[in-house]
Write a structure and sequence with these properties.
Alpha-Beta Plaits; Rossmann fold; 5-stranded parallel beta sheet; 25% strand; single chain; 3 domains; 25% helix
Length: 396
């Protein structure tokens, strides 16, 4: 992996590199110039140096894996709640750690976190590392990255797991860059080798293949995981401990000023729905979505769609299931006119019951469906709605 190094034997301490760096990543300590972890590899310092004392080098040495131990889970805390993806990350994190004799830890950042830290211990965490400070009340990418860097430097975890949420997708790339290591995004499967190499599997090339990615020469190993992909960790009798870390002024130093916070109105989410009815390319017209939505409402469920319908402008992206949309794991999902391409299937195949309706009996969706109905959705749905609304009491 590339990094920027300073040849201090050729440096005259002119300070041009410090002046030009927009990230405060260059420091002068006595008679040397040092590049710190804030470096973003923009190369401005290289261009500014009059003596060509700053260069890009390739790291060729492998890391000592024995020095990096444990699994660290980022416990996403927002507006007084822990995001439920955290408990899924703890579940897979504990499984990985148990296979190679490591411990599982959580990183919790925010303000007034004592009760939340105690709650996390009930999921079988060995240590909850808490950075509790009023200046960390609201998420800020730069300050949270500083905090994350501190715990990685202190703990030296082998694996770091972050949820593929809006916060996680903003934070994880920054922290992995600081750590000069790789990041695999949107993993669907995680396994581990006995040498602690994390095997990260994710869809690639538009979902046409499943890529297996291994970070052999660097630590920590970063992976983000989508919500509703892994199983939650069970609640157990707590046995771990809580460690409060010091929050320094340097960690909370930011050039971002929050002027106002506007709360967004809560809206129904397909991610949290127990019942979903999905419209696919078999739907002939935008107006026909009303039929599928009526069917969903008859089951006390939500309407979802595939990517082609979003691209046509027939539905909002927040209702899309797929790699570029949402991952779901409802109790019941009924697909209507959905072919079942891997980009879609990978984000819903963990549903408890899958029912597929399609006129094409060779459609890939039938390979993962528990119940398959070969037929025309325009004939099947009206009769089902009539039956449900008429003489059936349906409950999930």
């Amino acid at each position: 992996m590339a990094s920027i190094r300073v040849d201090n034997s050729n440096c005259d301490l002119c300070g041009d590199c410090i002046a030009v760096c927009p990230f405060d990543a260059i420091e002068q300590t006595e008679d040397t110039i040092q590049i710190n972890a804030a470096c973003k590899m923009c190369n401005l310092c290289i261009e500014a140096c009059p003596r060509s004392a700053i260069q890009i080098t390739q790291d060729t040495q492998s890391v000592n894996k024995d020095e990096w131990r444990g699994v660290l889970v980022f416990a996403e805390y927002f507006e007084g709640k822990v995001h439920p993806v955290t408990f899924e990350l703890i579940g897979i994190g504990k499984k990985l750690a148990a296979q190679v004799g490591m411990k599982t830890h959580c990183l919790l950042i925010g303000y007034n976190l004592e009760s939340t830290a105690q709650m996390l211990l009930t999921y079988g965490i060995d240590t909850v590392f808490v950075y509790d400070d009023e200046r960390l009340l609201r998420f800020s990418a730069d300050t949270y990255t500083n905090v994350f860097e501190d715990i990685i430097t202190t703990l030296k975890p082998s694996i770091v797991l972050v949820g593929s949420t809006s916060i996680g997708r903003s934070l994880a790339p920054r922290v992995s860059t600081r750590s000069r290591t790789g990041l695999t995004a949107d993993c669907t499967t995680l396994t581990i080798k006995q040498n602690t190499d994390l095997v990260q599997i994710r869809p690639a090339f538009g979902g046409n293949i499943m890529a297996q990615i291994i970070t052999e020469n660097h630590r920590p190993q970063f992976a983000t995981v989508r919500y509703k992909v892994m199983d939650c960790a069970p609640v157990v009798a707590p046995f771990g401990s809580i460690e409060y870390a010091d929050v320094t002024d340097k960690m909370t130093d930011t050039k971002i000023e929050v002027l106002r916070v506007i709360a967004k109105d809560a809206a129904p989410s397909i991610t949290d729905a127990d019942v979903l009815v999905v419209a696919g390319q078999g739907v002939k017209d935008k107006s026909d979505l009303a039929l599928i939505e009526d069917f969903a409402h008859a089951l006390n469920g939500e309407l979802a769609v595939t990517r082609p319908l979003v691209e046509k402008g027939w539905s909002d992206y927040t209702r899309q299931i797929g790699l570029s949309g949402r991952t779901v794991k409802p109790k019941l999902i009924i697909t209507c006119g959905v072919s079942g391409a891997i980009q879609f299937a990978a984000c819903m195949n963990a549903s408890e019951i899958i029912i597929a309706i399609n006129t094409d009996k060779t459609a890939p969706i039938f390979k993962i469906a528990h119940i398959g109905i070969v037929g025309d959705l325009y004939e099947i749905l009206p009769s089902l709605i009539e039956k449900i609304q008429g003489d059936c009491e349906y409950a999930i």
